[in-house]
């Protein structure tokens, strides 16, 4: 009986070892498959995005309420902002009303109503108007001026870097962009140009956010083609231009 129990115990231990080996093999294969899935998912995640962005469009626009307005997360507010901008453009551009004239007419009407109401309240048996005391805080204006100064200084630094002649590519991009803006400015006035930019900010981001999976592949193809054309232009033209400041020759 003792020998039979020893044999059964040995058989059970042998079966346990085989089961452990099989389980270890299954776990290793499952871990391998999981790692393969992770690698494949990471490869799929590396999709070309316009301007090399890695964040959603909402985060790129700064997040918060301004991004919600630009992406039409609250359709009533976005439509109201766009309607007000359109009304201002129609009022000043199509109806040819001037800003200074409008401000003066509003002030005349407002002051006349308040003055007449303040003097005629005893006759119409109504309480006199309560004119609020308007006091603007200094802190928001100081913050705005500080941020504006910082951006202006950055712009001057960028212009200095471009004018130093070290980066020919950036120089050509800025020159071509400025030339295009000057052409557009000759077609329309500043108010119309501002309105076009405003409408574009309220339409282009939301369309891109909705159809980014279709736009990004087309943008990738266009970028590849532009790189090819730039390589040809660089080889034939830009590479022949001397880089850096030229040394002045001594006159005899």
Structural account:
The chain is mainly alpha-helical. 76% of the residues lie in helices and 0% in strands. The protein contains 10 helices and no strands. Helix 4 packs antiparallel against helix 8 (190-201). The relative contact order is 0.07. Mean pLDDT is 76; it is low at 1-10, 25-34, 36-45 and 246-252.
Structural class label: mainly alpha
- Terminal CA distance reads 120 Å
* Cα-based radius of gyration, to the nearest Å: 35 Å
Number of helices: 10
Q: Provide mean pLDDT, rounded.
A: 76
Secondary-structure map:
Elements (H helix, E strand, L loop, with lengths): L1 H44 L11 H4 L3 H7 L4 H20 L4 H26 L13 H26 L4 H20 L2 H12 L2 H7 L1 H25 L16
Salient structural properties:
elongated; 252 residues; mainly alpha; disordered N terminus; 0% strand
Summarize the entry for a quick read.
The protein has 252 residues and is mainly alpha-helical.
């Amino acid at each position: 009986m003792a020998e039979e129990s020893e044999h059964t115990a040995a058989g059970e231990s042998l079966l346990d070892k085989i089961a452990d080996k099989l389980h270890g093999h299954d776990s290793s294969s499952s871990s391998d498959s999981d790692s393969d899935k992770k690698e494949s998912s990471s490869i799929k995640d590396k999709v070309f995005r316009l301007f090399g962005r890695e964040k959603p469009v909402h985060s790129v626009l700064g997040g918060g309420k301004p991004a919600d307005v630009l992406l039409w997360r609250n359709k009533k507010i976005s439509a109201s902002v766009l309607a007000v901008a359109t009304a201002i453009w129609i009022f000043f551009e199509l109806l040819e009303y001037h800003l200074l004239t409008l401000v003066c007419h509003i002030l005349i009407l407002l002051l006349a109503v308040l003055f007449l109401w303040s003097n005629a309240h005893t006759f119409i048996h109504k309480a006199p108007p309560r004119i609020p005391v308007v006091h603007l805080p200094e802190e928001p204006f100081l913050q705005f001026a500080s941020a504006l100064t910082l951006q202006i200084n950055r712009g001057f630094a960028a212009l200095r870097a471009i004018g130093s002649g070290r980066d020919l590519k950036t120089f050509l991009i800025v020159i071509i962009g400025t030339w295009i803006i000057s052409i557009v400015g000759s077609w329309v006035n500043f108010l119309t140009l501002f309105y076009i930019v405003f409408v574009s900010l309220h339409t282009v981001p939301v369309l891109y956010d909705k159809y980014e999976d279709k736009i990004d592949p087309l943008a990738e193809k266009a970028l590849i083609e532009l790189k090819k054309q730039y390589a040809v232009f660089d080889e034939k033209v830009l590479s022949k231009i001397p880089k850096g400041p030229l040394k002045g020759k001594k006159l005899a």
